[in-house]
Fold these 3 entries.
Entry 1:
Amino acid sequence: MHEISLVRNMLSSLEDVFPGRVPQVKRIQLTAGILSNVQPILIKNALDAVAADSPQYAHIKLEVVILPILIHCEACGKTSEVIDYKFVCSCGEPSTNIIQGEELHISQVEFADDEILQV
């Protein structure tokens, strides 16, 4: 289950970026493109599992925002959403120029004092 290592890495990154402030973290927003292969329920369960072993993380809520796959077509210049993993522009031309959908990053961190930081 790669979600456990993802959660551990996410928390480790927060410790590095916000030294001493992780106990004050109330909510983490994780942005994941469809191609990152992150399932929201699995990553939330992984956070619960990590928190069971490391109670200092038990208070943190995780929100996962899933982004669709977007491609840019060189033939017509349009940006189209990939449907059913068919990498074809709305004009009918195939495209592998992915401009969104592979992301996996912490996008927001909310602290107990309601401070929200875009990361």
Entry 2:
Amino acid sequence: FYFRLLFSAVLILALVVLQVSFVKILPSWPGEMNLFLVFLIFVLSLYGWKLLLLFAGGIGAVLDIYSFSPFGIFLVSMLATGVLIHFLSYNFFTNRSLYSFWGLTLFATVFYEIFLRLLYYLSTSFFSRGEVFIGQEYFWISLMKGVAMNLVAMLVLFYIFNFVSNRFRPVFIKG
């Protein structure tokens, strides 16, 4: 039990360090990728709901400690996104095909970004007059780039895991 918990903590820290110190400094499109969401979707599909909540809470807590945002914003956003992808995976995207993973990635990325910005806006608007992010062109362009890069990351990781294991099915629609 303790080894598994220590391994999970080291994996969370390594993922946060990779995202914050490497991915975020990449230029334009690749810099918008969110490895946390792709990782959480794979954790849900491979290990289940309980480990998803552990990793979502751990990633959110570490990001809250790292950032200068009001404490709890990343934790709540990650946990809410984890609950959403579990709900979608259990009720709508029930198979383990590439299309299911893409659908989960799309919904998780859009929900996470909007929910995170909404929480940040609500927490800062009490202290100062914050700008509404919905009307900003930069937000939507950044969101589209993030969705595209997360879908590409999901495609690559899906086929890597499919090559190593036969737990997933690359289903293609034939017309």
Entry 3:
Amino acid sequence: MVNEELLKKIKDALDFTFDDEDTDRKIIGIIEDAIPILRSLFGIPDDEEIDWTIPSQERFLLKNYCLYELNHVSEQFNDNYRNDILQVRRKYEVRQWRDFQDSMTE
């Protein structure tokens, strides 16, 4: 479920300055589809919570993925944001490696 704060931030990024039930429903659907796609691209484990409302590279990419999906060009997203995706992925890989190392020393 998409919270109101995240919906507002994505609408702002997409330049939707008005409230419309149909538009909100469409954007919520895009966000709900985008989050699992991005989690997979980033290599984020299912049990790890992400706060998509705070400024971060993850939120930056979510906003841009939503823009691409809204304009029906999401297939171009991976190519255009490859470096950003890989940076975020590396961050989670290092975190998972550290967690694994920590669990081995306990």
